[in-house]
Fold this sequence. Notes:
Structural class: alpha/beta
Radius of gyration: 18 Å
Oligomer: single chain
Order of helices and strands: EHEHEHHHEEHHHEEEEEEEE
Strand content: 15-25%
Number of strands: 13
Distance between the termini: 30 Å
CATH architecture: 4-Layer Sandwich
CATH class: Alpha Beta
Number of helices: 8
Helix content: 25-40%
Low-confidence stretches: none
Strand order of the largest sheet: 3-2-1-12-13
Number of domains: 1
Amino acid sequence: MAIYAVGDIQGCYKPLARLLDKVNFDQSKDSLWCVGDLVNRGPDSLKVLRLLKSLENQCVTVLGNHDIHLLSMIYGIRSPRPNDTLDAVLAAPDVGELAVWLRSKPLMFQSKKSKSILCHAGIYPGWSRKQAYSYSQELAMVFADEKKCIKLLRKIYSNSPSKWEGGLGNTQKHRFIINAFTRMRFCSPKGHLNLTESGFKGKGRKNRVPWFNLPNRDLNKYRIIFGHWSALGLLNTPNHLCLDTGYVWGRELTLARIPKTFDAKPIKKSRLYSVTSE
């Protein structure tokens, strides 16, 4: 049984299928982990959702910001943006089932056996692993209830608060949790999120540090698998694996075979697979 993790699919069904063929993915025994942003910008979001849903328990996915955007559109909270490619999903006869399936997905998944954490954007540096998982579970309970989910989705679109601290009300708390898990790239050393900058030039600034460069000793024995940052591209260190290699921007879709145990080493090149944009 193999575990494969794939970067931001974003509605690109054909390259996903090519990757799965490339590794001879066997639904009866292999698992596919998705870092979120399953939909949007690519041409086949509906096919992607139906494929992943059909994999049942062999597919593990977390929610990305585009997936949450789709839920907001399904429930009439947001209107289409100029670059959205979600019309086929919204018009599909099974859109309700797909929404229920998406709402059942967490913001964070962890495998204690392989010492792996799966999330879309990252783990906020001010949280321990147990805290992050607890907050993900708290939001999962909200998303599981359609009425509560809709109520929350109406309130999440803001960059405030920028820092996690005691005394936040439920709305602010939940908004921050979602922003950290699905939109975070840069943080200040004091823990403020910068949600407006997406570029990456190899170095951070004094108050704009890549979240993974801020110390978090509690996560030293885990590999965090994430996406969301196409400008960063493939990052492959003992503790961090970014798989967003920008297929929708004309580059690659990347898949990695995840070791069954944590060895404190980068993923071997022979375990990294990619297909280029057509």
